[in-house]
Amino acid sequence: MSASTLTPVTADNVARTPEGRVASPCINICKMHEPTALCRGCARTIPEIAGWSKSDDESRIRLLNLLPERRALLIAHGALATEPLPKA
Fold first, then answer.
1. Which residues of 44-74 are buried (b: 16+ CB within 10 A; e: fewer)?
2. What's the pTM value of the predicted model, to 2 decimals?
3. Which residues of the chain have pLDDT under 70?
4. Judging by DSSP bridges, how do beta strands 32-33 and 38-39 pair with one another?
5. What is the pLDDT of residues 77-87, one digit of tens each?
6. Measured over all CA atoms, what is the biggest interatomic distance in the chain, rounded to whole angstroms?
7. Among 68, 20, 21, 75, residue whose Cα is nearest residue 44
8. Cα 24 from Cα 53, distance rounded (Å)
């Protein structure tokens, strides 16, 4: 299934924190893939990760909708991590 066929994230179907905020896509695999500048776990950039706590829910939802295409890019590079990476 391509990223374009996935159901878009909306205010009605997004995962939320117990406080009701849009939940982070972080999966605790925090390792950057240098060629794409994306986290191998969540597919966000460092500025996006750093700014998440200050972002409003609308901005978070916009970002979440970019992630499927980014994950596809990481997969194409053989770099998407779904399990903790071995310590180097």
1. bbeebbeebeebeeeebbebbeebbebbebb
2. 0.87
3. 1-5, 84-88
4. antiparallel
5. 999 998 766 66
6. 40
7. 68
8. 9
